[in-house]
Amino acid sequence: MGRSGSTISATRRRRCSESTQPIASARKRVDLYTFEDRRKSQFYYRGAGPEERFTIGARYATSSAAFDSDTELDKQIGSFGSATIDAYAIETNLGYNFGRNRNRFRLGVGGGIASGDHDPKSSHFTLFRAPYPTGLTFGIIEANGNENTSGFTPNVSYTYAKKITLAVKDYFFYRQSAADGVYSSPGFPLRAPEGATAAPLGNLGYVSIVDALDRHISVYGAYARYLIGSFFDEAPESRTLPSQSTAYFNLWFDYKL
Q1: Is the model's pTM score more than 0.85?
Q2: In a domain, 3, yes or no
Q3: I want to staple 183 with a disulfide (CB 3.0 to 4.6 A). Which of 10, 13, 145, 220 is the partner?
Q4: Residue 69 near residue 111, CB atoms below 8 Å
């Protein structure tokens, strides 16, 4: 949750078909998209089989001097083996800006849900699979994938002189369905659900700073730490393959002509 943000940011980054229509002003935007994904064999905790999955989505984003919002809805239908796919995902990010033009604070909150498999024995398969995930679904490091995930993130940022931005974010991730396990960023099973009842997957704290040195060069630095949740402590697989918290740091330079 969240790219930047939550559970379906990866969907936003890669679209096979997209139609964009600005409405009312340049600060409002609507995206409508649909595509299909056919696989001869796909593996989930309920089993393996051929899959045909269709995604239909819409996104609405708007911003003003004080408020900004960005909401995306996705519906998936199709088939997996003999089961009928009926899955969904939703993500939203809201922000309030205050301060002068050159020095501004932004307080924000985001959240999202990507449905999990509620009954592996049912003929209805309710797991949402993020199409073409980038590996940076939540904007920084990817400890768990979009599948079967819900979460929220409070965040705050400060921009000084329109060139330096400091941002602090805190992500909280949970299993959406207790009957389903946890998946990695590409969508492969990571931890099975058997023997675990806990929903918390982890907490991701994140600090970043961006400095636009001039119109050509900018510097970006970030530090993130993912603290594993109680689900990973309960999962039987963790006894033979222990789960560990993860720290991440990066620093890069951008040059634009």
Answers
A1: no
A2: no
A3: 145
A4: no
Report the chain (257 residues): mean pLDDT per 10 consecutive residues: 41 36 62 94 94 96 92 96 96 91 90 96 95 58 82 94 92 95 86 89 92 90 91 76 81 88
Q: What's the CATH code of the domain at 241? A: 2.40.160.100
State how far the alpha carbon of 71 is from the alpha carbons of 31, 168, 171, in Å. 10, 21, 17
pLDDT (0 to 100) of residue 141: 60
Which tokens go with 103? 């020095």
What amino acid is encoded at 22 in this protein? P
Domain total of the chain: 1
Q: Is residue 249 part of a domain?
A: yes
pLDDT of residue 92: 96
Q: Kindly list the distances between the CA atom of residue 48 and the CA atoms of 43, 180, 189, 218, 231, in Å, as whole numbers in the listed order.
A: 4, 15, 11, 46, 24
Q: Distance between CA 218 and CA 123 in Å, rounded?
A: 52
Specify if 2 maps to a domain.
no
Complete DSSP assignment for the chain: -BTTTBTTHHHHH--SSEEEEE-SSTTEEEEEEEEEEEEEEEEETTEEEEEEEEEEEEEEEEE-SSEEEEEEEEEEEEEETTEEEEEEEEEEEEEEEEE-SSSEEEEEEEEEEE---S-TTSSEE-----SS--S-TTSS--SS-STTEEEEEEEEEEEETTTEEEEEEEEEEEES-TTS-EE-TTS-EEE--TT----EEEEEEEEEEEEE-SSSEEEEEEEEEEEE-HHHHH-GGGGTS----EEEEEEEEEE--
